[in-house]
Structures are given as C-alpha cells and as structure tokens.
Amino acid sequence: MAKKLRVVVVEDERELRDGLKVLLNMTNNFRCVNNFRTMEEALFNLVKDQPELILTDIGLPKMNGIEGTRILRERFPEILIVVLTVHGEDDKIFQALCAGANGYLLKNTPPTKIIEALNEVVAGGAPMSPSVARRVVSLFRNFRPPATADYNLTEQEMRILKMLVDGHHYKTAAFELGISTSTISFHLTNIYEKLQVHSKSEAVSKALREKIV
Known about the structure:
Arc Repressor Mutant, subunit A; 2 domains; 10 helices
C-alpha cells in the first residue's frame, strides 16, 4: 500500500473541520493526522504531527491564516500549504501567495475538486479555484513594473554616470563639466552608494543592464 501524505487541517468551523478530516481519510493518498481551530495550536503541534501538507483557512481566531502561512514557510519550507477560504478578494489572494501558499481554493469548491487540487499541489502544481485564477491573471495583466529602477540620482549624478558609460574618466568628466576632480569624486561616492556598487566598472555595468541612463 502506498504511503499516505500526512495532512493537518486548520479551520475554526468545527463542522467543516470534521468534514475535511473525513474527506481526507476516505482517500487513497491522504491522511488527516490532526486538525485545529487556531493557527497557534497547529504551530505548537507541528513537530509532533510532522505534516507534509497543511490545509488552512484565512479567517481564524487570533493569528490569521496569511500570517500563519508566512511563519510556516519560514520554519518549515518543505511543507505544502493550501488555503481554503471564503475570501476571494485580490488583496487576500495576493497576500496569501506572497506569504508562501502553494494553492488557493474557495470554500465553495466541491469535495472531489479539493482532493484533485491537493493531488495537483503534491505533483508540483499551484491549484486555484477558477475565479481565483482569473483574478490572479488580471492582477498580473494590470501590473506594470517600472521600466527602470529609481535610485534617486540627482541630475548631476545622472550626467556623470552617463559620462562614465560613454567612456569618460575623472579628469575628462571634470573638464567637460567645468568642475574639479574632487567634486567628481564626491559625486561618484554618492553614485556608488545609491547604486550599491563599489567601482566605476560595476556602476557602468549596472547602468547599462538596468537602463538607468
């Protein structure tokens, strides 16, 4: 007989918690080794329970499921975490996925689909309820990262950085701008600090790579 995956359920509604326990124990692939009303209880017992997968709600008493997921991911990075919740709002989905959830299901998901989703996450997938998946796609479609990073360089610093990219040295840059080499050195110190680099070559490389100038 194949080894069943150990699952812990974190859900404050007793009827649903018991129902999930029965559902899991009826399958060939999963076994509910424990279930808890709060995330604090689950965290306290994790070492003893040794789950390979955690099915958790978001709206829990005291610590919510998103914060719990963040802690779980830090302490037990190998554990699979699937959220099962009524919350389908963009911010909740985004926060849960950023916290480290491997999947996000809504509570109106039929029992057979929940089991399919858990099998999917074990196989390396990231299962989501259809409406959640649509919202995630929409979030990414509307997300527009900045074309270039903003390092808060002043106009003069940008000018000097561009001159470095164009091949200028301290003396030629100073002559071109009509300032002293010590002033150039002062600006370069600020440029290196803002770009988090340590040399002219690193500054030039980063400027070209990130299209800063």
